[in-house]
Each structure stands twice: as structure tokens, then as C-alpha cells.
Design a protein that fits this description.
This protein has helices at 34-37, 50-57, 64-68, 72-85, 87-103, 114-124, 129-133, 137-150, 152-171. With 173 residues, the chain is mostly helical.
Length: 173
Amino acid sequence: MITASSTSSGADSEGGTRSDAQTGSDAYRGAFTAADLDMGSNGSPATHNVLIGYILWIFGFLGSHRFYFGKPVSGTIYFFTLGLLFIGWLVDLFLIPAMARRVENKFLPGPNDYSTAWLLLTFAGVFGVHRFYLGKIVTGVLYLFTFGLFLLGIIYDFWTLNEQISESNQSRP
């Protein structure tokens, strides 16, 4: 979200000055901030970050980016077909921004970050780290000692992690 900034003295937010031609709202635009890049189109904080989607896309031939964006059926298909023999995986490189826009109104923002939980599940899920992050200590310990409940728990979490985070965010103030 880019906002226009103008002051009566002609000073900009960086401490410099602008000419009169630059002080109009259409002529001068502020720079992006880190918060702007993580905002949804409706102005609320984005629940699913595009950058994280691309990081998970690297492992997308296993469907992880599709699960992240709330598409468990196609994520499962990608998992068993290596991203539809890598062709669908390459096409998804261009589809990730649209997937991020579609998912932003689907899940509730809150204290538990979707991106953090998904990175923990993808890279350390067999140790239950994502479960500890969500405050599910008992199942976290169970995952730790059973290699993610013999990987079946990991598959379950790939299917349901977005809903688990949304429920957790709803129950916390």
C-alpha cells in the first residue's frame, strides 16, 4: 500500500525537500515499507506471505506451497506425482501471487503466524516443532518421539494446519 505524503513546508519523510511540482499526491509517492509488503488487499495483515510461498515452491514438487495456500487436494496430487512431473510445479511459479490473494480472506490473522508454522512443519515437522509453536505440547512431544507419528501425523498436519492456526488465533485474544 503506497501512500502519498505532502507537507506544507515541502519536506519529505526522508528529511529532504521536494519542488512544488512534486508535492501533489499523484506526483510524489512514498517508498514501500516492510509492513506494506505483508498487507492483504483489504488493508488487514496478510495471513500468507508470497515470499514464503516461493520458498515453499522450491519444494513444491512435493506440494508444500499448495498446502500452504489452502489447496490440500492439489497438494496431495503434487506430492504423489512430483508436481505433475514437474510441469505443474513450473507453472505454479507464476500462479503463486494469485494463490496468495485468494487465501488472504479465508483464514483468521492472529498471534500465531501462518508462515512461521508452515516453515516449521515443512522443515522440522517430524520433530513436532510446529505443534509446540501452536501450544500443543502433548502432541508435540508425541511427534518428537514417534517421528511425526510415523509420518502419518505430518500428512494430517499438511491437510489441516491452516485450520489449526485459524482456530488457535480465534481462541486467543
